[in-house]
Structures are given as structure tokens and as C-alpha cells.
Amino acid sequence: MADEPKRPSLYGARMWGQVQHQLVNLPLGIAGFVFTVVTLSVGLGLAVTVAGLPLLALGLAGCRWLGGVARARARAALGSGMAEPGPPVVTRPGFAGRVIAALTDPLGWRSALYCVLLLPWGVLGFALTLVLLVVGWPALPWAMRGLAFVDRVLVESLLCPNALVQRVRELEDDRGTVVDAAAADLRRIERDLHDGAQARLVALAMDLGLAKEKLSEDPASAAEMVDAAHGEVKLALQELRDLARGIHPAVLTDRGLDAALSAVAARCTVPGGVKVHVDVGADGTRPDSAVEGIAYFTVSELLTNISKHAGARSATVDVWRHEGRLMLLVQDDGRGGASVAPGGGLAGLAERVGAVDGVFLVESPEGGPTSVTVELPWSTRAARAARA
């Protein structure tokens, strides 16, 4: 018979971690209670003076720090998976702005309440744990589970980041990402116009001016210059088409993702070619134009990276709709080792996808293959609000 898996011991490391947590609650509760009561009472008492509000803000900042210690302890001993909140939002510069941010920080006040409540709860938990360690050994594991549950509820209800505040912070980050991406695109367009089509058009104007001067004196030479200018016009038009395709390809607007991604795959220099399978739009519905644009440029950048860096023989692109989400899967059989490193190209794609509440995942072990999965909303928040 196969060996049955061993069940975790009731008196294992987890239980002893909970015991330690309950015993430490008391000294931390005393320290937090004294600090909170003294600083907040003195700060409120002196609120009519210049020193009162800064002292009150300092007390709330200290309570916020003590809340951070409590969150770290809860993650280590109680198995809580709460996120760490960001700093208070400073809306005004300078010392006064920091004081106002601390005084209007909801988490700071909730942390102060936690520091006050921790003392009576710490006394109760310490006394019960000590009694059980001495005379209630058989009931200790179950009692520790109950105390840990109450502790976790207390921490998560008072010290967790406010959902609305977190959402506002995420939206601010997304807005910053979108603004940075738009600014980068504008700089790229300006650079491409200045170094490419504009330079060719300036040279073309000079050549045509010289040809005009020579038209009566040396018609043959003038004809050669006009012929050369004609070639420059073709090159300038091609550069303008490429630039327009980089902004938003007409084929994407007119025919959708299937045709646009097939065109991108046809230009990819992977030796074995790129297979594209798009299973959206068969019923006449299409994602929002902003989502289509992000999907197009994401796939385009990924295929460019595969051509330049992956050393792949072939690649595939799959696009489908799943429960109101647009799914992308780009795979190649290259050398692997790709990662979303800060400042890298994949990090920029991840930020652009995240700006519309999307998900960007990279699986690329050394030696390959590489799979990049992108999940995008079928419609953006702005589009849903406009339709509503």
C-alpha cells in the first residue's frame, strides 16, 4: 500500500507561531496604547495652537507605522494575505501639505483605533494563552485557531487599504502610464517625421528647384534630376505609409484584428513564418477601438522582439474571446529567457496593458519556448460609460 500523506501536527510550527503572536500582543498593545493616547490627546488638546496639529499628525503617522508592524506580524503568523497600502496622498506641497495628508488619512485614524483596541485584546489573549499553556494543553491548538481568527479579522478590518483609495491610486497610476505612452508616441512620430519624410521632402524641394533652373539650359540634366526626385517622392510616400501604420493602421479600422494581425505576421522575418488564428468578430461584434489598438500594437511589438532577439524558427498568434475578455497568446520556439524587467520593452507593454485593467503574463524558461498571454477587457470603462 502506498504511504498515506502525513497530516500536519496540531502542535506544529504554525500553532507555536500563533502562541508567540498572542504573547507579543500584550507588550505591543501597551506600547501602542500609551503612544496613541498620549500623542493624540496632547495633539487634540493643543489643536488651537501652532504645535497641536503637527503633533497630532505625528501621532497618526506613528500609528500608521505601528499598523504596518501589525500587518507584517499578521502575514507571518496568521497567514493573512493583505496588501501593503501606499503612503498618504499629499495634495499640497511642503510641510503643511504633509500635515494635512496625515490628518485626513483614513488609514491613520483606523490604525489609531487598532492601537487602542489592541491593549484589551492583548490582555485577554495573553491571559488565555498563558492559562492554556499551563493547565489547558489539550485545548491549546483549537483555542489558538480561534484567537488567530479574531486577530486576523481585527487586522484586516482596520488596517487593510481602503478599496476605494486603492482603486483611485490604481487609476492614477494607469493615467500616468497612458500619458507617458502617449508622450512617447508623440516623440517617436515627431522624430520619424523630422528624420525621415521631412528630410526627404526638403531634399526633394531643393532638387526640383535646381531642375527648374536647368530646364531651359540643360533639359537632359533637368530630366535626370526630375527622375531622381520622383524616386524620392516614392520613398517619402512609403515612409509616410509606415508612419501612419505605426499610429493606427487603416486595415485595423476597416477590417479588424484578423486582417491587421495577418498583415503584421506577413512582415515578420521569422524563417518558418507566423501562424495567425483569430476567433473574434465572426458574429459582427468587435472590441472597442482602444482595445483593438492595444491588442494590435502588443502583438506587433512581440513579433518584432521575436524577429530580433528570440532566434526562433516559427511563431504563432492566437486571439479569441472568453467571457467578455479579449485573449491573446503569442508563442515562439526561440531561446527563451524573456522577462518583464524594469525599463525593458516587455515592461512597457505590461504597463500599457495594465492601463486598461488587462493582464500581461510571460512564461519563458531558458532554452524556450516562450509564451506571452495577454488578457484585455472587451470594452474600456470610458466606452461602457459612454454607452450608459
Q: What would you say this structure looks like, in words?
A:
The structure is a single chain. 26% of the residues are buried. α4 (106-135) packs antiparallel against α5 (140-159), α6 packs antiparallel against α7 (219-247) and α10 (289-310) runs antiparallel to α11 (345-354). This protein is an alpha+beta fold and 388 residues long. The chain has a five-stranded mixed sheet with strand order 1-2-3-5-4. The chain is 66% helix and 9% strand. The protein starts with 12 loop residues before the first helix and ends with a helix. Residues 1-5 have low confidence and may be disordered. A hairpin with a 2-residue loop joins β2 (315-322) and β3. The longest helix has 52 residues, at 163-214. GO terms for molecular function: kinase activity. Keywords: ATP-binding, Kinase, Membrane, Nucleotide-binding, Phosphoprotein, Transferase, Transmembrane, Transmembrane helix, Two-component regulatory system. Its EC number is 2.7.13.3. The chain crosses the membrane at residues 23-48, 111-135. Residues 23-138 form the Putative sensor domain.
On the 0 to 100 scale, the average pLDDT is 78
What's the story with the biggest beta sheet?
Answer: 5 strands, mixed
What percentage of amino acids are in beta strands? 5-15%
Helix run count: 12
Shape: elongated
What's the total number of strands? 5
Look at the helices and sheets and give the structural class. alpha+beta
End-to-end separation in angstroms reads 63 Å
Poorly predicted ranges: 1-5
What pattern of helices and strands is seen along the backbone?
Answer: HHHHHHHHHEHEEHEEH
Q: Give the radius of gyration.
A: 32 Å
Strand order, largest beta sheet: 1-2-3-5-4
**Can you give the helix content as a percent range?**
55-70%
Catalytic activity: ATP + protein L-histidine = ADP + protein N-phospho-L-histidine
InterPro entries: HATPase_C_sf, Put_sensor_dom, Sensor_HK_TwoCompSys, Sig_transdc_His_kin_sub3_dim/P
EC number: 2.7.13.3
Domain Putative sensor: 23-138
